[in-house]
Amino acid sequence: MSDYETSAAYRVRQVAKRASYDRETVHAILDAGYVAHVAFMDQAGPVSLPLFYVRDGESVLFHGARKSRFMRALGGGGPLCFTVTHMDGLVLARSAFHHSMNYRSVMVHGVAETVADAEKPFALDLFTARARLGRPQETRPANAQELKATAVLRLPLVEVAAKVRTGGPLDDPEDMDLPVWAGVVPMQLTFGEPVRDIAVVPAD
């Protein structure tokens, strides 16, 4: 896979050696996530919302109530910043200054496009399948009223940057002999045992 041709304005500047524009890296980080924070400017000021998302090829999709402030603002062509972050570990150093975190993140800038009504059922199936593989074939699809009430936005992956930190603490040489525990405390997302819904539909 080739690199994204991210413009200079959106390339990583702080600790640039941790940046990546490689498509495989970006896709892997996006595909591992479930929640993105989407930031935009509203009439009252800056807003950032956590949203469930899914990657569809060279774009990411997110949805919401068609009449919501969020969908009206972004469906109308407002610029946004889309961010996904995974925390992989707490990095504990010998000095307070060098404490850090291991992480994988992707940031996308751009303007979202409204998904056409004809494409909306397919897009919503992608969200359902992201919740559980094969789930669209098991559940009732969205009806006409639900489709009308829902807006789906597509953000092309054009201005994209990934940033990754791995490894242990980076202490100063003069601190290496301090009697302080140093290392990494791993972090990961795990799923619990499924709990069945006990609601029962009354018989006719």
Task: Give a verbal description of the structure.
This protein is α+β, with helices and mostly antiparallel strands and 204 residues long. 17% of the residues lie in helices and 36% in strands. It contains 4 helices and 10 strands. Strands 1, 2, 3, 4, 5, 6, 7, 8, 9 and 10 form a 10-stranded antiparallel sheet that branches. The protein starts with 18 loop residues before the first strand and ends in an 18-residue tail after the last strand.
List the helices and strands and how they pair.
Layout: E1 19-20, H1 23-31, E2 35-42, E3 45-55, E4 59-65, H2 69-75, E5 79-92, E6 100-111, E7 113-114, H3 120-131, H4 144-149, E8 150-156, E9 159-165, E10 183-186
Antiparallel strand pairs: 1-9, 2-3, 2-5, 3-4, 4-8, 5-6, 5-10, 6-9, 7-8
Give the key terms.
204 residues; 10 strands; alpha+beta; Pnp Oxidase, Chain A; ten-stranded antiparallel beta sheet
What percent strand?
Answer: 35-45%
Mean pLDDT comes to 94
Q: What is the total number of structural domains?
A: 1
Nearest-angstrom radius of gyration?
21 Å
The structure class reads alpha+beta
Helix content: 10-25%
Report the CATH architecture.
Answer: Roll
First-last Cα distance: 57 Å
The CATH topology turns out to be: Pnp Oxidase, Chain A
CATH homology superfamily name:
Electron Transport, Fmn-binding Protein, Chain A
Q: What does the largest sheet look like?
A: 10 strands, antiparallel
Described by the principal axes of the CA atoms, the overall outline is: globular
Specify the CATH class. Answer: Mainly Beta
